[in-house]
Design brief:
Blueprint lengths: L2 H11 L2 E6 L5 E6 L2 E4 L2 E7 L3 H8 L2 E7 L4 E11 L2 H14 L3 H4 L8 E15 L6 E6 L10 E3 L9 H5 L5 E2 L5 E2 L9 H5 L5 E3 L1
Antiparallel strand pairs: 1-2, 1-5, 3-4, 4-7, 5-6, 6-7, 7-8, 9-12, 10-11
Length: 204
């Protein structure tokens, strides 16, 4: 799996569940299909007067989520900012061409109320529950730092008892000089941390 394949799966899903942050700091989620994908950027459209646009102007943080029929979940996190004025018409035309229903929503010149947002600092989380062991990965689309998540085993504190491996639902803890978690298959469930008698399993 890679970032571009994740973007392609998001495009094929058609509609994104997109969350913004309201004035109280609470998430506000809605379905968004007026989206355009470039290899290094994601653009979406809303109307300037909508609450969504006001929320984005106050706090541009967004998350989107899609779920595929293969039980893959793809989450995109980033910051949405209004695209430059000289690029607005280009991306509006691109989205209207890809989503013809928009001409019924905003016919003729009424589409001028639309505004394009570009998502920056993109981090994509991929999580596949349809295989065993499960697969997960984190990708940065434009150089944004990808936060560390999950668990690790402190080699200095590991006593080699194997209790962690026995407790892992996915069997993703392997034996070596000390036990080691395979992060690409880890559920992040914390069972190993609860089971370890030496306290050697740490949250990242």
């Amino acid at each position: 799996m890679d970032a571009q394949t994740c973007l392609q799966k998001m495009r094929l899903a058609g509609t994104l569940s997109l969350a913004t942050v309201d004035e109280t700091g609470a998430p506000q989620i809605r379905c968004v299909s007026a989206v355009h994908y470039e290899p290094d950027a994601v653009y979406f459209l809303t109307a300037r007067g909508k609450e969504m646009a006001r929320q984005l102007e106050r706090d541009g943080r967004i998350q989107t989520l899609v779920h595929t029929r293969f039980n893959e979940m793809i989450r995109m996190s980033g910051v949405a900012k209004a695209a430059p004025a000289d690029e607005q018409a280009r991306w509006i035309d691109a989205i209207y061409a890809e989503q013809p229903y928009l001409a019924n929503v905003y016919p003729g010149d009424t589409r001028k109320i639309n505004v394009i947002y570009k998502v920056e600092n993109i981090v994509i989380d991929y999580f596949n529950l349809g295989v065993r062991p499960i697969e997960r990965a984190v990708f940065s689309l434009d150089g944004a730092p990808a936060p560390a998540k999950g668990y690790r085993i402190d080699a200095e504190r590991c006593i080699g008892c194997g209790t962690c491996a026995a407790s892992c639902p996915q069997g993703c803890i392997v034996e070596g000089d000390t036990y080691r978690i395979e992060p690409e298959h880890c559920l992040h469930c914390g069972a190993c941390a609860e089971a370890c008698p030496a306290g050697a399993v740490e949250r990242l």
